[in-house]
């Protein structure tokens, strides 16, 4: 009798990173054999990180083939799956929490259609960015991670939802009072690893609405705005020659001096050291 192994999706994901209210990510490696994936109530996606050969059922049809690294899949919600891996396999699993879809918009995650094999370059790019962020220990910050996850959820709804969702028009920006609360919160917590949910709470609108309307009001996404705010604060601190760049980086919410230098150069066009020299 063939031994059957279980990929406990929730436990596998919890062995990776629990990333706040929107997404969980795990990298998984399995040897050849029969593997079961239990049913899950969450929208989950897979990204093949290696070429692999497997047999599986798709819509009651037995499939047998090779999956290329970079192929993506949208897992079936509330459906038990079984795969027979013919070779070693490495893949990443992304579990989107309901909050990524439902903030102020109803339970729209239920309309996402499953697909076992997708060659969608946009979906692959979004998943690769999220995986890269985990591998770099979220150097770009949790606000970037949250924003990318909401972007992924919006992409899934627009491209793979079976529900006839009418596109909502958000031509206007944030209400002035809501925008002011968001900016004040950013300024008061600039040394923290800000989350999108913090600005959602301050603004009183959904995450997807916040990203769109914030950009309409400021010309920048919340993540871009926060980065520029961090750089501006760093410029002010650099006028004090007693402060080292590592100290300034941590005081302005950057992960480390390297992160500060990379963002500073991209934003200001010069390095922090060059900026300090220019101050005289």
From TrEMBL:
The entry lists its GO molecular-function terms as: DNA-binding transcription factor activity; sequence-specific DNA binding
Residue ranges of domain HTH araC/xylS-type in the record: 180-278
**Which Pfam family, giving just one, matches this sequence?**
HTH_18
Q: Which InterPro entries match?
A: AraC_XylS_family_regulators, Homeodomain-like_sf, HTH_AraC, HTH_AraC-typ_CS, Tscrpt_reg_AraC-type_HTH
> What domain of life?
Bacteria
Q: Which UniProt keywords are given for this protein, alphabetically ordered? A: DNA-binding, Transcription, Transcription regulation
Name recorded for this polypeptide: AraC family transcriptional regulator
């Amino acid at each position: 009798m063939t031994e059957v192994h279980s990929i406990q999706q929730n436990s596998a994901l919890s062995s990776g990173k629990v990333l706040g209210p929107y997404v969980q990510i795990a990298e998984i490696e399995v040897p050849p054999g029969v593997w079961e994936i239990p049913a899950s109530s969450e929208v989950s996606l897979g990204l093949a990180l290696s070429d692999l050969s497997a047999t599986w059922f798709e819509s009651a049809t037995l499939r047998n083939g090779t999956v290329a690294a970079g192929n993506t899949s949208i897992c079936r919600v509330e459906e038990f799956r079984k795969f027979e891996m013919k070779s070693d396999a490495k893949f990443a699993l992304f579990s989107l929490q309901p909050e990524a879809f439902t903030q102020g918009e109803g339970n729209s995650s239920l309309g996402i259609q499953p697909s076992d094999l997708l060659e969608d370059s946009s979906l692959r790019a979004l998943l690769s960015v999220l995986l890269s962020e985990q591998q770099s220990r979220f150097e770009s910050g949790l606000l970037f991670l949250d924003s990318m996850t909401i972007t992924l959820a919006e992409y899934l709804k627009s491209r793979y939802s079976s529900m006839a969702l009418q596109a909502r028009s958000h031509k206007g920006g944030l209400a002035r009072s809501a925008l002011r609360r968001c900016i004040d919160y950013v300024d008061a917590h600039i040394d923290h690893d800000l989350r999108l949910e913090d600005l959602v709470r301050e603004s009183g609108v959904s995450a997807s609405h916040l990203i769109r309307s914030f950009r309409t009001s400021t010309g920048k996404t919340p993540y871009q705005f926060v980065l520029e705010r961090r750089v501006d604060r760093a410029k002010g601190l650099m006028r004090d020659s007693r402060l080292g760049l590592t100290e300034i980086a941590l005081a302005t919410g950057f992960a480390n001096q390297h992160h500060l230098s990379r963002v500073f150069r991209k934003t200001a066009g010069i390095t922090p050291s060059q900026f300090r020299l220019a101050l005289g």
